[in-house]
Design a protein that fits this description.
The complex is a heterodimer. By secondary structure, chain A is an alpha+beta fold. Chain A has 4 helices and 9 strands. Chain A has a 5-stranded mixed sheet with strand order 1-2-3-5-4. A 4-stranded antiparallel sheet of chain A has the order 7-6-8-9, sandwiched between helices. In chain A, α1 crosses α2. Helix content of chain B is about 30%, strand content about 30%. In chain B, the strands form 3 sheets. In chain B, strands 1, 2, 3, 4, 5 and 6 form a 6-stranded mixed sheet that branches. A 4-stranded antiparallel sheet of chain B has the order 10-9-11-12, sandwiched between helices. A two-stranded antiparallel sheet of chain B has the order 7-8. Classes of the chains: A alpha+beta, B alpha+beta. Chain A: Keywords: Cytoplasm, Exosome. Chain A: It comes from Cucurbita argyrosperma subsp. sororia.
Chain lengths: ~240, ~290
């Protein structure tokens, strides 16, 4: 199948280095301590953060750092065909773990000993790149909850199809069988915290693809900063400062 | 639900007794409702409904299936509700399942009528494509995104909005197949049929706190309830379904009184909802 036309356009009309439209909204769940909605094209993810609060399960309490927990759930209607999957399947568990590890790394957990932070991500629509969208949404929700962080983590994926590196794969491109590189990136510290790839790729091409994904992360980070700044301004205005 | 102090409990109860609730509403006033349609593009129809801090999403998906042998001239509709842990940390894992099942069953009872499909808000015979062979199966899925009480009313409203947003693809049955063969069909992706949703009821939950009852209770108020009655009422003021929750017994005369009040409230809710749905759909067309 042809994923990049001779004119250099992808199936959804994007250029190879072009990202889907991203949109973020802070404060989507009023009851949560922090929440955010993040959209990458048709992928739509909601994240809610509860905490820092008392540890629910005493045996998990840690005296030197906060406990970070994460749960990833997909709505039944999020995919193209209807599915009723039992909760806690392997894919969800794996993604929960990935998100937890990534977020735990950037939260200053040592500042909140004997407490617990819960991150819940809910996929409303899945169209490829849910992992990245979840991490971006979780970052925004954590920031909204006012949880101290080293830096914001942003994530973006890139792939390699028809001998062209492609940024931000959608579902059709993702399921084409080519490599899919997901990168989590700390833009200020200039460090990669998450790197996943399936399928195989020559090393020199991998370098290009990863670089492309990092560029994507930086673009997401700029947008996320804008959104956070706007929300902070709104808060300041509400306070009457 | 987080614990309330004795003072807070008295404040809530006292406010309800004086017809001035903690958020300034009267006993029979709803919180502002906002409706947004077509929020999930993969579904045939969808809607998001916000009532104060409560937020739910409902989607409708239509699939071609075989009608039940007992009812060859009717389609099938089923309702599933899911409680997302984003709404409440206790819904994590399987924690939300109990509430989700309770809500799905109540919704089915209130909206779908009896087993035979009689009295259903959705005209099941309009879902039939070829009698006895092919029909549309409607899968209605609700998702609780944020919970601040009165989930059932919000889900009912969201389902109503999602159904009026639903377009069922037009099906052309190509050749007449023989009696026991499945007919060949051509599902159009351009022409859609709209539903007649005027018969879909709204659900009004009356929550009894102390000696009085209130509509659209918040989570704090719900924690003080002795019992609650959910009534689904359609446009012709007919009661379509009824569920009583909560352990405390209620005098039959009080129940009848609650039903008549519920009917009165449902009229206002129905009008409000219809205008919100119309506004949401007009918004979407722009």
């Amino acid at each position: 199948m042809e994923f990049v036309s001779p004119e250099g356009l992808r199936l959804d009309g994007r250029r190879p280095m072009e990202m889907r439209q991203i949109r973020a909204e802070i404060g989507a769940v009023s009851k949560a301590d922090g929440s955010a909605l993040f959209e990458m094209g048709n992928t739509k993810v909601l994240a809610a953060v509860y905490g820092p609060r008392e540890v629910q399960n005493r045996s998990q309490q840690m005296s030197n750092q906060a406990l970070v927990r994460c749960e990833y759930t997909m709505a039944n209607f999020s995919t193209g065909d209807r599915m009723r999957k039992p909760k806690g399947d392997r894919r969800s568990t794996e993604i929960s773990l990935v998100i937890r590890q990534t977020m735990e790394e950037c939260i200053l957990t040592h500042l909140m000993p004997r407490s617990q932070i819960d991150i819940f991500v809910q996929v409303l629509q899945a169209d490829g790149g849910t992992r990245s969208a979840c991490i971006n949404a979780a970052t925004l929700a954590l920031a909204d909850a006012g949880i101290p962080m080293r830096d914001i983590v942003t994530s973006c994926s890139a792939g390699y199809l028809n001998s062209t590196p492609l940024l931000d794969l959608n579902y059709v491109e993702d399921s084409a069988g080519g490599p899919d590189v997901t990168v989590g990136f700390l833009p200020k510290l200039d460090k990669v915290t998450l790197l996943q790839m399936d399928s195989k790729l020559p090393v020199d091409i991998f370098e290009n693809v990863m670089q492309l994904a990092i560029e994507g992360c930086k673009a997401v980070a700029n947008y996320i900063r804008e959104v956070m700044l706007e929300s902070t301004k709104k808060l300041e205005y509400c306070r009457g400062a | 639900m987080k614990g309330l102090s004795v003072g807070e409990k008295l404040f809530i109860e006292g406010g309800i007794a004086q017809d001035l609730r903690t958020d300034g509403r009267r006993r029979l006033t709803y919180r502002p409702i906002s409706v947004e349609t077509d929020v999930i593009s993969q579904a045939n129809g969808s809607a998001r409904v916000r009532m104060g801090g409560t937020e739910v999403i409902a989607t409708v998906k239509a699939e071609l299936g075989r009608p039940n042998a007992m009812q060859p001239d009717k389609g099938k509709v089923s309702i599933f509700v899911d409680c997302s842990p984003t709404a409440e940390p206790t819904f994590e894992g399987r924690g939300g399942e109990e509430l989700a099942t309770e809500l799905s069953v109540s919704l089915e009872r209130c909206l779908l009528g009896g087993k035979s499909g009689a009295g259903a808000g959705i005209d099941l015979s309009s879902l039939i494509v070829v009698e006895g062979k092919l029909c549309w199966d409607l899968y209605i899925e609700g998702l609780v995104v944020s919970s601040d009480g009165n989930l059932l009313d919000a889900l009912g409203a969201a389902i109503k909005a999602a159904l009026s947003n639903t377009g069922i693809p037009k099906v052309n049955v190509s050749a007449e197949a023989s009696a026991n063969e499945q007919p060949e069909v051509d599902v159009s992706d351009e022409e859609f049929l709209q539903f007649d949703t005027s018969g879909v009821p709204v659900i009004v939950t009356l929550t009894k706190v102390g000696r009085h009852y209130i509509v659209d209770a918040t989570l704090e108020e719900e924690s003080q309830m002795s019992s609650a009655i959910s009534i689904s009422v359609n446009r012709h003021c007919h009661v379509c379904g009824l569920t009583k929750r909560g352990g405390a017994g209620v005098d039959p005369s009080v129940i009848l009184d609650m039903i008549s009040v519920g009917k009165h409230v449902s009229e206002q809710l129905l009008n409000k909802l219809d205008s919100e749905i119309a506004a949401a759909e007009a918004d979407e067309e722009e």
